[in-house]
Amino acid sequence: MHILVGCVQRAERVTYGVVFRNAAGRTLRQVGRTVEADDPRGVALQAVLRALWAARRYGRTVRIAVDHPEVADWLARRAEVDPRYLTPFLQIRALLHAYRRVEVGLASEEEQRASRRVALRLAGDQTEPVGTSLWATLQPVPGG
Fold first, then answer.
1. Please, what is the angle between helix 40-55 and helix 86-96, to 10°?
2. Which of 99, 35, 106 is nearest to 71 (CA)?
3. How far apart are CA 139 and CA 111, in angstroms?
4. Is this structure's pTM higher than 0.85?
5. What is the distance between the alpha carbons of residues 130 and 112, in angstroms, rounded to a whole number?
6. Confidence at 10, pLDDT banded by 50, 70, 90
């Protein structure tokens, strides 16, 4: 299972988009939410936590790709976590024990476009990133 997490910020709100893909790259589900917040790092951690809970039904191997470099470093334990985000970070670390194998890293450009597309659509921005198309729905993909 691949979990792609991206955030977009508009004034006092941050919208996250999460894309669930199987090992073959097929999109299984897309979800997102807008949160009153001023820092996308905390929202990204909350998105990862919610995504990990949802992904448990898809298997026990997971790759998490986050669009925020600092959050990716925290999750990969390459940097010390900002104390303000210690609670969601510890919840994520505890939940990771439910998985057999976990990889965490910075999202590639394509992965960032995919997750941010979901977030932008939820935020009401119909602007299409160059060279990509918007998904028709944020609901789970049939047959996925």
1. 20
2. 106
3. 19
4. no
5. 13
6. confident
Closest CA to 96 of 121, 76, 110, 66: 76
Q: Are 102 and 64 in contact (CB under 8 A)?
A: yes
First to last CA, the chain: 12
Distance separating alpha carbons of residues 134 and 127, to the nearest angstrom: 9
Q: Which tokens is 90 given? A: 């510890």
Report the residue count for the chain: 144
What does the pLDDT look like over 89-122, one tens digit per residue? 999 999 999 999 999 999 999 999 999 999 998 8
The set of residues, in sequence order, having a beta carbon less than 8 Å from that of 35 and lying 6+ positions away, is 13, 14, 15, 16, 43, 46
Task: Assign domain 2-107 to its CATH architecture.
Answer: 2-Layer Sandwich (3.30)
Phi, psi for residue 94 in degrees, rounded to 5? -65, -40
